């Protein structure tokens, strides 16, 4: 009989990067979808640690610079965001970065083309660092009377984001289409997701998550 035994590997590190929807607000500050996604992937047999890289109120112009925290060769997460420092991950860089920004750009009237260019810069920075970027569309916004996410102002942003994902050949998590029909049940005030919303967002990320790399290491062959 030929048996192959592989060494047990550590949990995979993933970064969730974005604004308050990522940071967490509706269920209490710093409790966002990243927690739900972490539990979901662990339960599915893919153990992960997910860094909360969200920052409430952030514009993409600010994200362009802040993303460097997560792409450094030896990251220091003590200056990450307003949440308790996640310094247990210091020195470890996420293999995948989930990018979901642009909602605050829409609220503050930043042009969709500027938002697209800023997101492109984040994608290219991630690629240059050897980190796999996954891009998301923007969810609906009823709090600021921007309505659904496929028409009007947000629709213009999302059309640009979908085109950007294609141009840059990156995976797209279409959070807009995943949440649009049910958003009234998935949020606490029209903008920030409740637990059900975090579950929907997490399921959408999970459905397009790049696969874990093949396990490498010493192969132990046992011949009987």
Give the total of domains.
1
How would you state the average pLDDT, rounded? 91
What is the CATH superfamily classification?
SGNH hydrolase
Please indicate the percent range of residues in DSSP E strands (runs of 2 or more). 15-25%
Overall CATH architecture: 3-Layer(aba) Sandwich
Structural class: alpha/beta
Backbone shape = globular
Main beta sheet? 5 strands, parallel
CATH topology: Rossmann fold
- Separation, N- and C-terminal Cα atoms: 5 Å
Continuous helix count: 9
Walk me through this protein's architecture.
It is a single chain. The chain is an alpha/beta fold and 224 residues long. It has a single domain (9-211), classed as SGNH hydrolase (Rossmann fold, 3-Layer(aba) Sandwich), CATH 3.40.50. Helices cover 37% and strands 16% of the residues. The protein contains 9 helices and 7 strands; from the N terminus they run E-E-H-H-E-H-H-E-H-H-E-H-E-H-H-E. The protein has helices at residues 20-23, 33-43, 60-66, 68-71, 103-107, 112-128, 152-167, 175-179, 195-208, and strands at residues 2-5, 12-18, 48-54, 96-100, 132-136, 171-173, 220-223. The protein has a 5-stranded parallel sheet with strand order 3-2-4-5-6, sandwiched between helices. Strands 1-7 form a two-stranded antiparallel ribbon. Strand 5, helix 7 (152-167) and strand 6 form a beta-alpha-beta unit. Helix 6 packs parallel to helix 7. The longest helix is centred in the middle third of the chain and has 17 residues, at 112-128. It is globular. The termini are close together. The model is unreliable at 1-8 and 218-224 (pLDDT under 50).
């Amino acid at each position: 009989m030929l048996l192959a035994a592989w060494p047990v590997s550590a949990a995979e590190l993933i970064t969730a990067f974005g604004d308050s929807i990522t940071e967490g607000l509706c269920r209490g500050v710093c409790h966002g979808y990243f927690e739900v996604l972490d539990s979901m992937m662990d339960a599915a047999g893919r153990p992960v640690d997910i860094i909360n890289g969200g920052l409430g109120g952030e514009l993409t112009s600010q994200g362009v610079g802040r993303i460097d925290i997560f792409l450094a060769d030896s990251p220091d997460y003590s200056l990450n965001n307003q949440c308790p420092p996640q310094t247990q991950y210091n020195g470890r860089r996420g293999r995948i970065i989930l990018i979901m920004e642009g909602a605050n750009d829409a609220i503050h009237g930043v042009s969709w083309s500027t938002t697209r260019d800023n997101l492109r810069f984040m994608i290219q920075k991630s690629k240059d660092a050897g980190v796999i970027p996954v891009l998301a569309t923007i969810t609906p916004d009823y709090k600021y009377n921007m309505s659904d996410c496929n028409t009007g102002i947000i629709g213009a942003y999302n059309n640009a984001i979908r085109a950007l994902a294609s141009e840059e050949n990156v995976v797209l998590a279409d959070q807009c289409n995943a949440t649009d029909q049910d958003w009234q049940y998935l949020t606490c005030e029209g903008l920030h997701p409740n637990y059900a919303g975090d579950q929907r967002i997490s399921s959408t990320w999970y459905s397009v998550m790049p696969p874990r790399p093949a396990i490498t290491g010493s192969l132990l062959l046992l011949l009987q």
